[in-house]
Every structure is written in C-alpha cells, then in structure tokens.
Amino acid sequence: MTRSADLTAGCRLCPRECLNIPSEEQPGRCHVPRAAGFFRVARLMDHPWEEPYISGSKGSGTVFFSGCSLGCLFCQNEAISHRAHGETMRSDQLLQAMEDLAARQVHNLNLVTASHYGDHLSRLLPVLKQRLKKRGRLIPVVWNSSAYEKTDMLAALADSESVDVFLPDLKFFDPELSGRLAAAPDYFVRASQAILAMHRLRPDHQFSDDGLLLRGLALRHLVLPGAWRDSLTLIDFIAANLPPDTPVALMRQYTPPTNARLREQIGAIMPRLLHKVTSYEYDKVCEHAEKRGLKRLLFQEPASADSRFTPDFTG
Fold this sequence. Notes:
Layout: E1 38-47, H1 52-55, E2 60-65, H2 78-81, E3 87-90, H3 91-102, E4 109-112, H4 118-134, E5 141-145, H5 151-159, E6 165-168, H6 175-182, H7 187-201, E7 206-207, E8 213-217, E9 219-222, H8 228-241, E10 248-251, H9 260-269, H10 279-291, E11 297-298
Parallel strand pairs: 2-4, 4-5, 5-6, 6-8, 9-10, 10-11
Antiparallel strand pairs: 1-2, 1-3, 7-8
Helix pairs in contact: 3-4, 4-5, 5-7, 8-10
C-alpha cells in the first residue's frame, strides 16, 4: 500500500501525500483523523437518486463517509466533505451498520468518498462480503469517488474482491481550473491514471436482467457553469481511451452554495459558480458526447439542480 503501515510516519494514501500524522488536532487535507479501526461516517441511507443502474427501484445502500482528500470548493456535500459532519464508528460498528443497510433490500452498497479510508476498507470489505454471503444478501459494492486516487490503492480494493463497481466522478481537465477550485493542479493527471486503472481492473460491464450494474466501470461528470469547454476535453479523453459503451452520466445538478462564507470565496475565484449551468452550456456538452460516439449516456433535466436532492446530513 502507498500509505505507511506505521501511522506515525504520516499519511501517503492519496496523491497529496500530506504526511499528516492522524489526530483530532491535525486532521490533514481530508479533514478527518484516521486511526486504524475507526471511520467517520455522515449517513447511511437507501438512496433513490443515483443513476438508474445504481439506484434501481429499491435504492442504493449508500454510506457517506465524512471528509474528502480532494475537497472541491463548490462541493454540494460540503457539510461532510469540508466540515466533517458525522460520527466516529469502530470497524465492528460500521460492519454491522452496512450489514443492516444491505438487509433493507437495497441493490448495492455504495461507498461515497471513502478514498481516505481505502487501506482500511480493503481489509474490512472482504469480511463484510462473507457475512452478507452467509445471510444470502451478497450484493455489489460500489466505489463512488472523485478519482483523485492512487492506482495501487485501487488495485488492493479490486484484488481483494472488495469492490465490484467503480463509479468515479471525472471533474477537471485544465490544471488551472482544478488548482483554483480544488487546490489540485495535478487532478487530471492523477484522475486519468486512476480511471484507466479502474478499467483494467474491472474491464467488463455486467448488468442484471433489470438493468442494474453488477460489475464494471461507470463514469460521472458534473458540468460546471463557465467550464463547459473543459467538459468537452474530458469527453474527448473518455472517447479516446474507454469503450464506447462505458456508462457515462452527464450531470446538470450543480447547485450554487447558500453558505455566505462559501459564496464569498467562490465569487472571488469564479463568479459563474454563483449561478446554475445554462441550457446552452449543458447542451453543448451532451451534443459533443453524442458526436464522439459514446453510446451509454445519461442526461439530466434542469430540475435536477435543486438542493432537495442533496441528502440531509444534519440529523
């Protein structure tokens, strides 16, 4: 693994390699302390608003982890990604909570922003799968991430059969844009390597008879106001490097922040992010994806840009 087994040596798990020594006082760039056997979790829920091949008719069993190693300035879930809202759970508590969630007849277990716990989860998830198998509820595990990850961590998750579906959100191409909005000018270099590794690790798409993704790679991309040309370049990368039937969801759900502090920060860096994406911008991206021959595309209606679809993390 890329992260030292000795936590006192500092964290190297994500591309930032912040060398933080996990503690409450110094939680590092991902905003949460990471001690072996502990996780900070914001919410577990049966999520009805993911892609149809993830949520299906009964919902996706979603585990929202607190913290994020990327930490985009405009994050729709900033209460958990920036402020680490949630509660600390021991490994045994998280195992039981995920087992209980699976028992609610959800289609999968969907781990959202868990990259900063990747080393721990590569050991924990095989235990979970054995427990689910004994109960007759062995369902796919979805790795729902920002793609800002190291390839050896992804390989460990795949080799241990911990993860069945990789669901990365490919965010930026332009290093200036990712530098301004996520303090990660190396984002595309790292994310493109990670996504190509995910494809190698899970090269074949397997769907159930009712259209649920059981194994493979599916991509997301959130179209940002004022950045549609960056989206076109990302689509060019997808079309040139992945099979044309790779599921790609082009999201229109960007919602401007309501938090006054965030609005001030964002307004100073990129004022267009104080508004929703326009139909012109979104349609340009969708048209380009179709022209590049991507065959399994998902589009969103303007109504998707509504804070009602952001889960409540305050309860």
